[in-house]
Design brief:
The complex is a heterodimer of chains A (253) and B (287). Chain A is an alpha/beta fold and 253 residues long. Chain A has nine helices and nine strands. In chain A, β6, α7 (185-201) and β7 (204-208) form a beta-alpha-beta unit. The longest helix of chain A is centred in the C-terminal third of the chain and has 17 residues, at 185-201. The chains are: A alpha/beta (253), B mainly alpha (287).
């Protein structure tokens, strides 16, 4: 059973400066005693605070909130990249995180090889990717360019390739962060179709975005993050309305 | 509406536990990393092929430059120490091939997580895959350097025997040590960023402290320095080099070397697992 279970989880980031990054300073600080003790304190930013959340199979959860509210950090917590500093996060299922289309892409190798590598990174096997390569190639419309190194591609071409791979996999837990843009409109229409298919295949979806249209197409429930905590959670329309209302109030007064 | 009730809902099965600061998670990291070998085997190959793409000879360039250095040092020191070239050159050459692997694991290990920060913060993966990739790449470099060894065997034939096949388990032991070294140095120097440059200089220094361009046996025969030369025994890298070099040159092997290297592997892995238990989950925060 695919699920994510988060209990009282907090994520604190240590903000190291040059001193606390240095072994020399840390060691000498121990020797130095009182004076150094203050210098050794590491500033901590609490990115997520006491998150309680349960997402189960079939859920289509939208993440909304201002920039810096903790949406991306929460996605990283849900994917298992960040293990909570306190509390616990239990991820049950194969996670396919799509936070950045470019990550795991190597500019020196060909498009075809990048399809394979990116798929392996997303938890697919070599066999599974080889079976999908033709489908991806067709979707990207890159033709012979697929045999060229990725560095010869334009930004738009790279996005096509990345989207093609990302939307071809069979994830149990799909975590999407926005940033799916920078492609021409006609292509985006086709990508939307594939994205929708992908979401339908996924056991569970968490999607962070500022685009209400996209959220309404793909999600059924929503979670509103503010200052690293859950502000509101419930059916999509309800949360979106509350979030919108708050936005208007904030900009109005 | 389906699901997404607030937590506290105790309907999750009790069996799976989230990863945390325990040995179980540390072992799970190593095991899951191993299971993803399709990924890191591919990435390691890619690192090598990248070099072939840039130039026709690719990593052979590194092999050639190593061979040239070894031959030059061999000639120089055989003149200085008055040792037969046929004796010193194979010693230097094989020593440098082994050294390339050891220093690669240490020096690249100190940057293994920092240089993969993009992957670590974007994709959930066991941290061990980055180390496996590194050690695999170093093993492939080692294999490249064996070309020079093969040429050397033709020019200076060595008295190889069946027992010298022990070089294969010896190499496996060296790889097992390379993994813990890269993991340990990688984790610590991700937290303390002043370590990689220090590590590089220490590796440089260790090259001279390890009998690669000079011969321990020759110093032992000289009563004036024999006492001081014995200090080399406390250099762990000396034993690693001996473990591989002796069978490759058909020299007598000592059980003592095996015991010492196995001992280092056990202690090193224990230490690494302790560090992994505590700090494995922090690497994503630190990079």
């Amino acid at each position: 059973m695919v699920s994510i279970d988060v209990r009282d989880a907090s994520v604190d980031f240590p903000i190291f400066d040059a001193k606390s990054r240095s072994l020399k300073h840390t060691v000498l600080g121990v020797v130095g005693g009182n004076v150094a003790a203050n210098e050794r304190k590491v500033v901590v930013i609490e990115a997520l605070h006491n998150i309680n959340l349960h997402v189960s199979e079939g859920d289509r959860l939208a993440l909304v909130g201002h920039n810096g509210a903790g949406k991306s950090t929460l996605l990283r917590l849900l994917s298992g990249i960040y293990e909570p500093t306190s509390g616990q996060a239990l991820v049950n299922g194969r996670v396919a995180p799509v936070f950045d289309l470019g990550v795991g892409m190597d500019p020196e190798i060909s498009g075809l090889e990048n399809i394979l590598v990116r798929g392996l990174f997303l938890g697919m096997s070599r066999k599974q990717m080889e079976a999908r390569v033709d489908d991806i190639a067709e979707f990207t419309e890159l033709g012979n360019f697929l045999h060229m190194p990725l560095r010869t591609y334009s930004t738009g071409m790279r996005v096509r390739l990345a989207l093609g791979v990302v939307t071809s996999i069979d994830p149990e837990i799909l975590l999407l962060d926005e940033g799916i843009g920078a492609v021409d409109a006609a292509f985006l229409e086709r990508a939307k179709g594939r994205l929708k298919d992908l979401v339908d295949r996924a056991g569970l979806l968490v999607f962070a975005s500022h685009s209400n249209d996209l959220l309404k197409q793909l999600c059924t429930s929503a979670l509103w993050m503010e200052h690293g905590s859950i502000k509101q959670q419930g059916p999509l329309e309800e949360v979106l309305d509350a979030y919108k209302g708050r936005e208007r109030a904030a900009s109005g007064g | 509406m389906p699901g997404s009730t607030a937590a506290g809902a105790a309907n999750t099965p009790a069996a799976p536990r989230p990863p945390g600061r325990d040995f179980r998670s540390a072992f799970a990291d190593l095991r899951r990393g191993w299971e993803q070998r399709e990924l890191w085997l591919q990435l390691g190959w890619q690192d090598i092929r990248q070099r072939y793409r840039r130039s026709v000879l690719g990593p052979i360039w590194i092999t050639i430059s190593m061979a040239v250095t070894a031959i030059a040092l061999g000639i120089l020191y055989s003149g200085l120490f008055g040792i037969e070239l046929a004796e010193l050159l194979p010693h230097v050459l094989v020593g440098m091939i082994v050294w390339g692997f050891i220093s690669g694991c240490i020096a690249e290990g100190s940057e293994v997580f920092v240089s993969n920060s993009g992957l670590i913060t974007h994709l959930p993966a066991p941290i061990s895959i980055h180390v496996y990739r590194l050690v695999w790449r170093q093993t492939l470099f080692f294999a490249h350097n064996l070309i020079v060894y093969a040429v050397m065997l033709i020019v200076f034939p060595q008295p190889l025997r069946w027992t010298d096949l022990s070089v294969f388990p010896a190499m496996a032991l060296l790889i097992a040590n390379g993994i813990w070294v890269a993991l340990l140095i990688g984790i610590v120097s991700t937290r303390f960023r002043d370590l990689p440059p220090v590590t590089q200089s220490i590796v440089q220094l260790l090259f001279f402290l390890t009998p690669i361009v000079w011969m321990y046996d020759v110093l032992l025969e000289n009563p004036a320095v024999a006492e001081r030369a014995r200090w080399v025994e406390i250099n762990p890298l000396f034993h690693f080099v001996e473990l591989i070099r002796r069978p490759m040159l058909g020299q007598d092997q000592q059980w003592r070397t095996w015991f010492i290297v196995i001992g280092i592997a056990v202690v090193g892995w224990a230490l690494t697992l302790l560090v992994m238990r505590r700090y494995r989950g922090r690497v994503a925060y630190w990079v």
